[in-house]
Write a structure and sequence with these properties.
The complex is a heterodimer of chains A (158) and B (222). Chain A has 158 residues and is mostly helical. Chain A folds into two domains: 93 residues, Rna Polymerase Sigma Factor, Chain: A; 49 residues, Orthogonal Bundle (Arc Repressor Mutant, subunit A). Chain A is built from eight helices and no strands. Chain A starts with a helix and ends with a helix. Chain B has a domain of 143 residues. Helix content of chain B is 73%, strand content 0%. Chain B is built from nine helices and no strands. In chain B, helix 3 runs parallel beside helix 7 and helix 7 crosses helix 8. The longest helix of chain B has 38 residues. The radius of gyration of chain B is 23 Å and the shape is flat. In chain B, 36% of the residues are buried. The chains are: A mainly alpha (158), B mainly alpha (222). At the A-B interface, helix 1, helix 2, helix 4, helix 5 and helix 6 of A face helix 1, helix 2 and helix 3 of B.
Amino acid sequence: MQANQRKFSKIYDTYVESIYRFIYIKVNSQEIAQDLTSEVFLRVWKSYQKQNLKNPRAFLYTTARHIVIDYYRTNKRTISIESIDIEDSAQDIGKKEEASSLIQQNIRKLKEDYQNVLILRYVDDLSITEISKILDKTKGATRTLLHRALSELRKQIV
Amino acid sequence: MDNKELAKKIRSLKSITPDNDWVLATKDFILEPEYTLVKARGFSFRLQPALAIPILMFVIVGSGIGLHLTLNNSNSIELAESRATTYLAMAEEKLAQNIDDEGIKEVGDMLDKAVDKLAKSPKNPTESAEIVEHISSINKKVEELEIEELKEKTQVLTAVASESIETGIENTTQALVENLIKVLEIQELSEEQAELFTQAKIDYNNKNYNKALETILMLTNE
């Protein structure tokens, strides 16, 4: 195995779980999450071979965001949140706790920016600085976004 | 509910983890030294005859389904869309390199994965076009390089792809006819048209969607 492969292998091992989770929460399907996660790493691996990435985590999340957006853009006419929820509940009963599933459904109903900031902050435990880099926002704007996302999520749950 | 409680609930999503086998298999596929994603391609009809006709029909009928899908968001024909194209692109790319025994085995694995994905759901017109182009190219390369180990796999792949695309055509035709029936239900029809419409509904209910579509097309010409 070449040096760049070994390095990328480490990057893959470090982030595959969090990138998969980030995507899964948004698409709510194991099969689609696997496909899109593969695409993320393929695309990043391709870039990695051309240039050394200064911040692979930010690059991976940014790529994941774009791929999910592309996926929904392509499939927007045929996918509704309700239908995915039904499919998910039928397929994944017993695999996930009910509470997790409910919070996931509520997060998916939020707008994309709110989903991202909540997942990155509370599921992936990233700092505001790291999130601001991934979302390409200032730290202040990221804090505000997080605050608004929490408020919106609370409204969904109540 | 305060922010701490809300954060705790969100953190419960940490329990989502990918399947370990998938994680390892994907890493193996990705970390090929010269691997690069195949760039987007244009559609070409340099296809095997067995696939050319279904795909052409599918593309034609598919243009009609766009209307139906716009009107009926609950339709989930494309919901389970999988990415057989990713595996096919990887196999195609691998075959373009100087392939050794290990590479042949990997291509075989990719083709198996593609077959698995293809068998799971019908395809939309765009994806079908990509699938057919990839398969056509892979078949050609396998023949050229005389890779006996892969010949059987490519035959299975071609057969499964044909079946998947045919299923897509049937589903598309069904959805199209269903939508046309809905539209015609509220139209004022002549006696001859009403007769044909009744026949079309009978054909539809008997799952003879092609016949139903044909009758509806005759009806609109009356």
